[in-house]
Amino acid sequence: MLTIYGRDNSINVRKVLWACSELDIAFERQDWGIGFKSTSEPSFVAMNPNAMVPVIDDDGFVLWESNSILRYLAGQYGDGALYPQAPRLRARIDQWIDWQASDLNRSWSYAFMALVRKSAEHGDAQQLAASIAGWTRFMQVLEQRLQHSGGFVAGPAFTLADIPVGLSVNRWFGTPLEHAPLPAVAAYYERLSERPGFRAYGRNGMA
Fold first, then answer.
1. Cβ distance 171 to 95 under 8 Å?
2. pLDDT at residue 128, rounded to an integer
3. Which residue among 20, 98, 103, 163 is buried most deeply as judged by most CB within 10 Å?
4. Percent of the chain predicted with pLDDT > 70
5. Does pTM top 0.85 for this prediction?
6. Are 115 and 175 spatial neighbours (Cβ–Cβ below 8 Å)?
């Protein structure tokens, strides 16, 4: 049985839960992280020295870092549809997974902490405006991509890349700010909402 360590209101844990839904993987989950068992406990740090969720234990194989977990699960349990072996197809998927982690995530961090988490440490108006502007710019990159991709971020079919990107899109619409008109992104959001895994772990009331 696959064990997932992490609270289900963490966006990175939700990536793993959604992937399990898409791949029909049975799992059990344990609550770790903010509001639950502390990830600084020695037993958790022994699994992940970064003391962050998620972590998985798949029959003794322990792995951390959410996007690495996605790739592992697709490789171990998938049939190649979500994460094909062909180098060019796989590279396109990896490109968008990495873009979400390195560019899109960084852009929305300050705005999300200020507007959704109401963090006292994120109250600077100039930094908030800069974060919203940067976030909007990267969402416009996604808009342009979706206008020409045929439906999903890596192409016409749903792939592993749509899991992290889709959760970021959910966060965009779930954050109270003035949203730029992005019709292709909005249509993509509705398209993802047809998937049970996204309804359960993405568009489920959590930003």
1. no
2. 97
3. 163
4. 100
5. yes
6. yes
